[in-house]
Amino acid sequence: MAQTKVQTHAYILLDRTGSMSPIWTEALSSVNAYAANIASAAGDVVPQITLAVFDAQNGLQFDVLRRSVAPADWQTVTDREASPRGMTPLFDAIARIVAMAETDNPEKAVIVIMTDGEENSSREVTKAGVKAALERAEKRGWEVVFLGAEFANFSDADAVGISASRSMAMGAGRMSESMAKLARKSQAYYAAEAAAPVTFDEADRAAAGEADVQKRKGLFARKK
């Protein structure tokens, strides 16, 4: 009997608020690096990839730029498709991407949240609501990671239950490398029959320049 392939999906939630302007080109390049490295490491388990960008302009603006795309069919994302603007409805956006994943109902999913700022404009979902959504994702065995793009204040991630081992700051000039490594970790999770958590170790943090970001932002390292 032929073995049934596991249905897998990668969801990338990218902050496109105004403060992302200085690093926007690099942020998009890092998303493309993630897709390229998922494709190169796919093997027999090939995830679909969804990319959504968000900001707030009189409420949540949530635009899906890529929907359930096979890595081999990925088209490079450019700044002609989206540009930085607006405020940061982080909780609303996280709830929306989790709801999308729940609708798709994959057996395995990695949800990547990339932002350079703190929650400041959600209207639809409370902190408690987001935490509940992420707890549902965790119960399903899905992996959720939180990436700070030139940003090292993880109070929002902590508040909604994303552990320190699953959040990391990335410095300018380091994002594509970090996302490529994350893609390989994601693929290991998809392919494994047993649990294979997607977490960040000290080598990942050194490569991402996390300590430098913390120093620039005047923040101290958290306990992992």
Explain this structure.
With 224 residues, the protein is α/β, with parallel strands linked by helices. It is 37% helix and 21% strand. The protein contains 7 helices and 6 strands; from the N terminus they run E-H-E-E-H-E-H-E-H-E-H-H-H. Helix 3 links the parallel strand 4 and strand 5. Helix 1 (24-40) runs parallel beside helix 5 (175-191) and helix 2 runs parallel beside helix 3. The model has no long low-confidence stretch (mean pLDDT 93).
Q: Can you give keywords for this protein?
A:
single chain, 224 residues, alpha/beta, six-stranded mixed sheet, 7 helices, 37% helix, globular
Describe what is shown at a glance.
By secondary structure, the chain is of the alpha/beta class. It has seven helices and six strands.
Low-confidence stretches: none
Largest sheet at a glance? 6 strands, mixed
The number of helical segments is 7
- The largest beta-sheet arranges its strands as 3-2-1-4-5-6
Structural class: alpha/beta
Q: What coarse outline follows from CA principal-axis ratios?
A: globular
Mean pLDDT: 93
Compressed to H and E, one letter per element, the order equals: EHEEHEHEHEHHH
Strand content: 15-25%
User: What is the tally of beta strands?
Assistant: 6
Helix amount = 25-40%
As a whole number of angstroms, the C-alpha radius of gyration is 16 Å
Distance between the termini: 44 Å
SSE map:
Elements lengths: L7 E8 L8 H17 L7 E9 L3 E10 L20 H15 L3 E8 L11 H13 L3 E7 L5 H5 L7 E4 L4 H17 L10 H7 L1 H8 L7
Parallel strand pairs: 1-2, 1-4, 4-5, 5-6
Antiparallel strand pairs: 2-3
Helix pairs in contact: 1-5, 2-3
